[in-house]
Amino acid sequence: MGFSVKMNTSRRTPHTNVLVKQQFCCNKFKKPKADDGGAEAPPVLDPIPDPKPIDSDEEMEDEPPIFAEEEAGTSKKKKKRKRKTIKQTQCKAKMLVKLIDGRWQVKHFVRDHNHPLVNKPSLPKYLRSHQGISPDEKEFLRILYNCNLTT
């Protein structure tokens, strides 16, 4: 059903800056990175600052003690969205097009992929090259925004 495409290289004329050559390739065309076991460095946390020194006991009676859990906020913690990286497989699928006499012509085409393709009609919208908002949807969102309606 499909795969994600990206523009690899292009050539422009030196004087007029017109695009004359463009290569499209599979999104997984790069060499895979050396596997480091997926280990990530733990985040560096700042130490919790000590409360201000209190000069007299009278001030301490007015304010309840503050614990580290309360200061940090024990309410629901927001989970960071984990973005999946695209696994590179050194895929050879590509297409080279050139502008000849005002028309784009396919000069080179490699069809073979070395990874599974998306085979369900409902999934291509999640591919990187298929994402985006159409101009009609953008205009509709602007209208809603101007009417103070949330989306």
From TrEMBL:
Residues 30-87 are annotated as: Disordered. Residues 75-86 have a biased composition (Basic residues). Residues 76-118 form the FAR1 domain. Residues 56-72 have a biased composition (Acidic residues). InterPro entries: FAR1_DNA_bnd_dom. This is FAR1 domain-containing protein. It comes from Triticum urartu (Red wild einkorn).
